[in-house]
Write a structure and sequence with these properties.
alpha+beta, two-stranded antiparallel ribbon
Length: 97
C-alpha cells in the first residue's frame, strides 16, 4: 500500500516495514517496539497507481505504516529458531530470543 520508491528509500536507511495500523493498535505497537529497544517510524500509507482507494474514503487516512530499525549503536545477533525462522536480537535480549 505504500509507494514502492518510498519504501525502498526507507529500507536503504535500515527501516523494516512491519504493518499498517490504526488506533488503538498503533499506540500498542509503538509501545511494544520501543520497549524492545527499536526505533519506530510512522508513514502514511500511499496508494500505488492503479490500487483500490476505497479505504481512503472510509477513514483509512488515520492509519500508518509502522517501520522499525535497531538503534544505530546496536550490535545485533542473528539467531535461528528450532522452526527454521531467523530472529534479530540485541545482545541484552539474547536470553528472550
Amino acid at each position: 500500500m505504500i509507494e514502492s520508491t518510498r519504501r525502498a528509500e526507507l529500507e536503504a536507511q535500515g527501516w523494516t516495514a512491519c504493518f499498517v495500523a490504526d488506533e488503538p493498535r498503533l499506540s500498542e505497537a509503538i509501545e511494544l517496539y520501543e520497549s524492545l529497544g527499536l526505533e519506530v517510524r510512522l508513514e502514511p500509507p500511499r496508494p500505488v497507481s492503479g490500487e483500490c482507494t476505497t479505504c481512503l474514503e472510509h477513514g483509512f487516512d488515520r492509519c500508518r505504516m509502522i517501520y522499525t530499525r535497531p538503534p544505530a549503536n546496536a550490535n545485533l545477533s542473528i539467531i535461528r529458531t528450532t522452526y527454521g525462522e531467523t530472529k534479530e536480537c540485541l545482545p541484552s535480549d539474547r536470553r528472550k530470543c
